[in-house]
Design goal:
CATH class of the largest domain: Alpha Beta
Organism: Actinomyces respiraculi
Shape: globular
Pathway: Amino-acid biosynthesis; L-asparagine biosynthesis; L-asparagine from L-aspartate (L-Gln route): step 1/1
CATH topology of the largest domain: Rossmann fold
Structural class: alpha/beta
Catalytic activity: L-aspartate + L-glutamine + ATP + H2O = L-asparagine + L-glutamate + AMP + diphosphate + H(+)
Protein name: asparagine synthase (glutamine-hydrolyzing)
Number of domains: 3
EC number: 6.3.5.4
Largest sheet: 6 strands, antiparallel
Number of helices: 21
Radius of gyration: 23 Å
CATH architecture of the largest domain: 3-Layer(aba) Sandwich
Helix content: 40-55%
Distance between the termini: 23 Å
Length: 532
């Protein structure tokens, strides 16, 4: 099998004969799962030997890698460039099962992609392809499974967590030198933790914060007050629908969407408009480093199942499907999808799922991190790269990841202890006895009042309807004006869809796949759709 290697980024380095690496830090064996398990920072590697081709990505999937057989299996295309996949295939076509899965989830599971015959290296994996037979094997070295060696004392866990964050942040700052840090300040826990750490360690002078939203949005006000208390620069980008849509339908957005979907997920567009405006205003520049609050924390869902262990495989599978594969309000379709079944079974194997509480947490959080977090959330970094900026995700680096996996259910299944950790560090960093501004919440209803209302509604069988009505209203009155991106339907039809069970991302995903999301983008409509 001959190898067609098409690596578009100039950041790749030939470190040995047949070995190319793109990484923040030197690695002794960049295609060894045992070495990569603890390797810090970002990394992708391609190694070509006489017998095999090895493809490796880090636990973030910082820079996606793809491969596809060509000429009847006589050649192998390996690339980091999504555009090269389409141009390098003899008869490019979309896979119908992949399109359906992406409509339901916003991503394509496992090593599959939207394109027939094209594969990707999953998060935290090394793929080995035999040049003689074409056989493919994979080592998933970084699936997020909880460690049975737990840190049981909450105070000890808090100390270990901050120590791990300190290690990753210190290493990051050493790598970056004096470059400016741009912090998207949402008013929530994650961005406030990063800001508190930087203040505590004397780095306020290199930090600039920003936020965005419709004029008068609560999240913008919370963000402003947090930045004011921290004493760091802050700017806001108003999301006014007319200006937002004008930019959204521009060729610039079409180019971004084309470069960022990686044939496997809806592009993450949350920061795109804000940073585009900031670049135009000179408030963000080439070489700036964006620090979004993406984190290993908070990936648990369906926490009530922890009170019902042992949990059956069927129950756990339903929880995953209803949480991740329900963007169109049709989880029964995803439940019958053999592609989804394969992804869930793979995750169960990697989590060592046996129905216990620890392996249930490993399964739910591991699937979340491997699929949605990596392919959709973390992929927001493509926007930063497209605008000429750098990025880092220190709360997803190896040390923080490993420490979180030693947490008990009491410490990690909710954000309660995490909030205590953030509050304490914020108090030490700012000298404030408590945050000047409350954390941003979608609703300002007191938690006890909300719990009481939910109890009454549940008793009268009105809770699902009430939750759907509230969710629909919130989606149509977004504080970030994202309801303006319902671009291929009227608000009335969007409301009907939302009330019937569709999600905002479901409406976006269907429009994206139909090339009706951005008027300047023509990505899929000229590709045939095939079953296999």
């Amino acid at each position: 099998m001959d190898i067609d290697l098409s690596l578009a980024s100039p950041a790749w380095t030939a470190v040995a004969d047949g070995l190319r690496v793109r990484a923040d830090h030197p690695c002794t064996a960049p295609t060894s799962p045992d070495v990569l398990r603890d390797h810090p920072g970002r990394l992708a590697a391609v190694e070509v030997t006489e017998e095999h081709v090895l493809l490796a990505v880090d636990r973030l999937r910082s820079w996606p890698l793809f491969w596809a057989a060509r000429d009847g299996g006589r050649r192998l295309l390996v690339t980091d460039d999504p555009a090269a996949l389409r141009s390098g295939l003899e008869c490019p076509a979309l896979l119908a099962p992949a399109v359906a899965e992406m409509e339901d989830a916003g991503f394509v599971t496992g090593a599959r992609t939207l394109l027939r015959g094209v594969h990707q290296v999953p998060q935290g994996a090394v793929v080995t392809i035999s040049r003689r037979t074409g056989a493919v094997t994979r080592d998933d070295y970084a699936f997020a499974a909880f460690n049975p060696d737990e840190i049981t004392d909450p105070e000890d866990f808090a100390v270990a967590f901050l120590d791990a964050l300190g290690t990753t942040m210190t290493r990051l700052l050493d790598r970056l030198g004096g470059r400016r840090l741009l912090l998207p300040l949402s008013g929530g826990l994650d961005s406030r933790l990063l800001l508190a750490w930087l203040l505590r360690h004397g780095e306020a002078g290199r930090v600039a914060t920003f936020t965005y939203g419709v004029p008068g949005a609560r999240e913008v006000e919370v963000s402003r007050r947090v930045a004011q208390q921290a004493g760091v620069p802050w700017c806001a980008v108003p999301y006014e629908r007319r200006a937002l849509l004008e930019h959204w339908h521009s060729p610039a957005t079409a180019a971004f969407l084309s470069a960022s979907h990686c044939w496997s997920a809806l592009p993450h567009v949350q920061d795109w408009y804000a940073l585009s405006v900031m670049r135009a205003r000179g408030e963000a520049g080439e070489g700036d480093v964006v620090l979004p609050g993406h984190t290993v924390v908070g990936n648990m869902h369906d926490k009530q199942l922890l009170d019902a262990v042992p949990v059956s495989r069927a129950t756990a599978a339903r929880a995953i499907i209803h949480h991740h594969h329900d963007l169109q309000g049709r989880p029964e379709r995803a439940g019958a999808d053999p592609w989804v079944a394969v992804a869930v079974r793979e995750a169960m194997t990697l989590a060592g799922f046996d129905g216990s509480g620890r392996t249930l947490r490993s399964l739910l959080e591991g699937y979340n991190l491997r699929e949605r977090q990596t392919k959709y959330i973390n992929n927001s970094v493509r926007a930063y790269e497209h605008l000429g900026m750098d990025w880092a995700l220190p709360m997803l680096d190896a040390e923080v990841w490993h420490t979180w996996q030693r947490g008990t259910a009491a410490a990690t299944a909710t954000r309660d202890l995490y909030r205590v950790i953030v509050d304490r560090l914020w108090a030490r960093a700012t000298g404030a006895s408590e945050p000047e501004s409350a954390y941003y919440e979608v609703t300002r209803v007191d938690p006890r009042t909300r719990a009481g209302l939910k109890g009454v509604l549940a008793a009268t069988h009105l809770l699902p309807a009430a939750e759907r009505v509230f969710s629909t209203w919130s989606s149509l009155h977004s504080e970030t004006a994202f309801d303006a991106l319902f671009t291929d339907t009227s608000r009335a039809r969007a409301a009907v869809g939302l009330l019937s069970g569709r999600k905002t991302l479901g409406l976006w995903t269907r429009a994206f796949l139909r090339d009706t999301w951005c008027r300047s983008a023509v990505l899929f409509r000229d590709l045939p759709v095939v079953e296999e």
